[in-house]
Specification:
alpha+beta; elongated; binds zinc ion; Sb-PDE family phosphodiesterase; Pol/histidinol_Pase-like; Pol/His_phosphatase_N; DUF5001
Length: 371
């Protein structure tokens, strides 16, 4: 009988999952919205067999659904086509069209993109929100950028610190990039590419008013390259007015992003600070017994582990001033306010987050303890 109940439960579960037609994995990426904007999860740099990747485009769509992403772009190298003997690929829009077809029954937006691929100093650059990839395939890099601009594309500099192109592992802003920026042909820069984070790329983003990006640049499987190693893929959170392709494009041009890789978050303070603020949900704030020790219960509602250092006017009763709240975890902090207060500020420095090289944001939560 017991076995029968178990069997019925298993069958019910299988049916329920089948009906939902969900591709969600056990570790979906989750981030809260911030005041005035939706937090849209994007990965705008990846490859398939239509350039030097190892999977068909439909797999990229399914992986994105498993990770709970909102927007992806398949950015095949226009010029580097190692599979061309097997896949002649006369139309460079093919990968986008297959992905679009695969995503049509799902809540996933596909952005049309391509990677313009050159040696240093031009390097690799993604043009996204393009209309037609074919005319962007040009002999001269300058002409490829001019065509991308003609199509009103958002263009970002990929892995500028890549040591295959810059042996020091530092980005070099050449005359080529300066000219593209001046002409309005280069709008963003990857500060996180695959598992690499370059503070120097963040500095370039801030100095040149480029949008801060993080991408997976995946060629194999997300599961093998990231998940199995205990990592999430890097993404760019884009703060948009709504979940639509024009809205994501508008936000990227406006620079409203935070790049995220596991517990590393990189972005302008005006977006990263409210993101952190919304990331900790206050469950309760009450004084313990007859004491002046304030118990604050906080839940990290994101999929990233968050590391903090106490910078409040008050010290902790029972924990190190440096502490982590893991993804999804609820933690109780005990703050010694020395007397009962009607309003208390908890000030925390987010140690894994950067608004500029070596600068971490400090976020304040104000509580009105119930006595
Ligand atoms: Zn590249
Ligand atoms: Zn790439």
């Amino acid at each position: 009988m017991k076995n029968l109940i178990v069997l019925v439960l298993i069958l019910t579960t299988i049916t329920a999952v089948g009906q939902e037609h969900s591709h969600r994995s056990s570790r979906p990426l989750t981030f809260p919205d911030i005041p005035g904007y939706k937090s849209i999860k994007t990965d705008l740099h990846m490859h398939t067999v239509f350039s030097d990747g190892n999977v068909w485009p439909n797999i990229r769509v399914q992986e994105a659904l498993r990770d709970n992403l909102d927007v992806i772009s398949l950015t095949e190298h226009l010029e580097y086509q190692p599979h061309s003997k097997d896949i002649p690929h006369p139309d460079r829009n093919r990968s986008y069209k297959i992905a679009l077809q695969e995503a049509k029954d799902h809540d996933l937006l596909i952005v049309h993109g391509s990677e313009i691929t050159r040696d240093a100093p031009m390097g690799h650059n993604n043009a996204v929100f393009i209309e037609d990839a074919n005319p962007i395939l040009q002999d001269k890099a300058e002409n490829a950028f001019a065509e991308a601009k003609k199509q009103n594309a958002f263009v970002f500099w990929n892995h500028p610190a890549w040591y295959a192109q810059n042996p020091d592992g530092n980005p070099i802003l050449s005359e080529f990039q300066k000219e593209r920026i001046n002409k309005g042909e280069l709008h963003g820069i990857e500060v996180i590419n695959m598992t690499d984070y370059a503070e120097e790329s963040l500095a370039l983003a801030l100095e040149n008013n480029l949008t801060i990006m993080g991408t997976s640049d995946v060629h194999g499987l997300i599961d093998w390259d990231y998940t199995e190693k205990g990592n999430h893929r890097p993404i760019t959170l884009v703060f948009t007015k709504e979940k639509s392709i024009p809205s994501v494009k508008e936000a990227l041009f406006a620079g409203r992003t935070v790049a995220v890789y596991n517990d590393l978050m990189v972005g302008r303070e005006e977006f990263l600070a409210p993101l952190l603020q919304a990331s900790l949900k206050v469950e309760s704030a009450t004084y313990a017994g007859n004491s002046n020790v304030l118990e604050i219960e906080l839940t990290n509602i994101t999929s990233s582990d968050l590391l903090f250092q106490n910078e409040s006017a008050y010290t902790f009763y029972d924990s190190s001033p440096v502490f982590e709240i893991s993804a999804g975890e609820t933690k109780m902090l005990h703050l010694k306010t020395l007397e009962r207060k009607s309003a208390v500020d908890l000030k925390l420095r987010a140690l894994g987050c950067f608004v500029a090289p070596k600068i971490q944001p400090v976020v304040t939560w104000t509580f009105n303890p119930s006595n």
